[in-house]
């Protein structure tokens, strides 16, 4: 009697997990693949600012996993991973379900990291998932009914801080006085120079205050305490949004269960976890040995998912795998309603054209979902089908 093959289990269906699952299924449709995620919907995080500003509708950035995976003939299970027994190849979930696996791919993304700054967890808003977005949105909306010039602070001068500051200013105008706090001496210090310059102009145009070389020491119910060259300052606040860091979401791992670097799972160039050759970690939760400087982005997560799928198929066929190489396709940031900045592959441009290009590029990256959803009068899916036709035409030349 032939025993049923254990599945390839993917835990976390974000950018890394979804790309991996869809690519592998295309390469080898007969493989048993099971995708598990604790949520019902995929979240296209780079489009969360446009959902906040209502430039796109919320469902456009959050297609249902059930639709995406049933279209691809992949089994999807909604459940939350709580434990891994790497030696026995068994996963445990929050409802006590136990599952065996042939191969395991973990890609559970990031959660905000408050670096133990006093009061941040209790008194700040975050912008990492749809729960955060809805909570922030309802506070901002409620504020519209009250006084003008309410004091809004954003901690972190990275892409999230800048993109949020510009969108909120464009939506709520004089409702908020926006202050952006950055601990280094410039905003977007890990980003492309062109995008940094465009962001500086966008912030200046919107009269958003930038507090550089400033470190947040504490956030209380009513105050924010900042340390800078002028000493310690305590300022009144109405709302503080924290965007200054993330950490890997690894709540299901036991202390010292596997080797980590910078708090993330250390993997080799094949994304394998040390000592467990059939287990892989990709996306925000892992760091590739020798490639520690890779940014924590969707672009990296998708390339890792794609590469691992190709490698796993090669190794199933008994062929040699290929080492991962990151291809920098550039970066895009939104800078308020209808504006963006793009820098990559030798091209730099900003403004309305960049905004349209950014949406078009993201539309092409959204996972394929059912025809019924695509046919709804949605900007993003109309553009996606247009783009597909265009690419087909282009390829046939
Ligand atoms: C507001 C915002 C804007 C961003 N903009 C950009 C951008 O413009 N460009 C860019 O390249 N990157 C951007 N990023 C970063 C990018 O979104 C992440 O790097 C990317 O999502 C990482 O992909 P991932 O697959 O590792 O994790 P995620 O996409 O976060 O997916 C993780 C998945 O794991 C699931 N999960 C977590 N824990 C469990 C568990 N225990 N059991 C089961 N499932 C679990 C989650 O529900 C989730 O679906 C942005 C991030 C944010 C927050």
Automatic annotation (TrEMBL):
Q: Which SUPFAM superfamilies match?
A: FAD/NAD(P)-binding domain
Sorted UniProt keywords: FAD, Flavoprotein, Oxidoreductase
Q: What Enzyme Commission number(s) does the record list for this chain? A: 1.6.99.3
Q: Does the keyword Transcription apply?
A: no
Recorded GO molecular functions are: NAD(P)H dehydrogenase (quinone) activity
The family line of this record is: Belongs to the NADH dehydrogenase family.
Q: What is this protein called?
A: NADH dehydrogenase
Q: Which organism is it from?
A: Prochlorococcus marinus str. MIT 9201
